[in-house]
């Protein structure tokens, strides 16, 4: 098993996407990239911790290679907006790949270059070394699946899940998503 750490806006969205992939055994929402130990959600939202909302993925690279995770990462959020995803604004919503080793760094750089070929606006996704990951509070975990009727889930996350299902059918677990 390997670990990937990604920040692509609200962690409710990224968790909902990546937990549906074959070969992914866990997705944990949390905070990384900042300078405060064990930050709270409120502290991170305040913008002074330097942390991004992120997810930490445990995956089997024989089933889903790291490169596939990165391809989906770039396809299912807007990597061209600085410190923003939709209405979520602030450095905590930045796009970043936190690499765990040299091979992940190289794969991230290659994936970013490939994604850039498909876009006209410049990708602003940071590729930075992983340092520490702090798990989010329990009420953030499995948020989408526990709150599908909530407006944010219907308006923001549902379209991302639909895009995942339409573009990456072969990579998605055969679970009920309705």
TrEMBL record:
Family note: Belongs to the MsrA Met sulfoxide reductase family.
Enzyme class, spelled out: oxidoreductase
InterPro entries in alphabetical order: Met_Sox_Rdtase_MsrA_dom, Met_Sox_Rdtase_MsrA_sf
Catalytic reaction annotation: [thioredoxin]-disulfide + L-methionine + H2O = L-methionine (S)-S-oxide + [thioredoxin]-dithiol; L-methionyl-[protein] + [thioredoxin]-disulfide + H2O = L-methionyl-(S)-S-oxide-[protein] + [thioredoxin]-dithiol
One family name in Pfam for this protein: PMSR
PANTHER family listed in its UniProt record: PEPTIDE METHIONINE SULFOXIDE REDUCTASE, PEPTIDE METHIONINE SULFOXIDE REDUCTASE MSRA 2
Catalytic residue list: 10
Function: Has an important function as a repair enzyme for proteins that have been inactivated by oxidation. Catalyzes the reversible oxidation-reduction of methionine sulfoxide in proteins to methionine.
Domain Peptide methionine sulphoxide reductase MsrA: from-to ranges: 3-154
EC numbers: 1.8.4.11
MF (Gene Ontology): L-methionine:thioredoxin-disulfide S-oxidoreductase activity; peptide-methionine (S)-S-oxide reductase activity
Gene3D superfamilies in alphabetical order: Peptide methionine sulphoxide reductase MsrA
Protein known as: Peptide methionine sulfoxide reductase MsrA
Organism this protein belongs to: Candidatus Curtissbacteria bacterium RIFCSPHIGHO2_01_FULL_40_12
Keywords: Oxidoreductase
């Amino acid at each position: 098993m390997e670990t990937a750490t990604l920040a692509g806006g609200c962690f409710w969205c990224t968790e909902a996407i990546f937990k549906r992939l074959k070969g992914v055994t866990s997705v944990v929402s949390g905070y990384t990239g900042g300078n405060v130990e064990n930050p709270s959600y409120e502290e991170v939202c305040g913008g002074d911790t330097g942390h991004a909302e992120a997810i930490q993925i445990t995956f089997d690279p024989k089933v889903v290679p790291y490169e596939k995770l990165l391809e989906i990462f770039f396809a299912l959020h807007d990597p061209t907006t600085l410190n923003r995803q939709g209405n979520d604004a602030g450095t905590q919503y930045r796009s970043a790949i936190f690499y765990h080793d040299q091979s992940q760094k190289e794969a991230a750089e290659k994936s970013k270059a490939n994604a850039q070929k498909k876009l006209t606006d410049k990708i602003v996704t940071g590729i930075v070394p992983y340092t520490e990951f702090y798990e989010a509070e329990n009420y953030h975990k499995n948020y989408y699946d526990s709150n599908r009727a909530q407006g944010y889930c219907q308006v923001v996350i549902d379209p991302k899940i639909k895009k995942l299902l339409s573009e990456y059918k072969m990579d998605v677990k055969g679970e009920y998503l309705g």
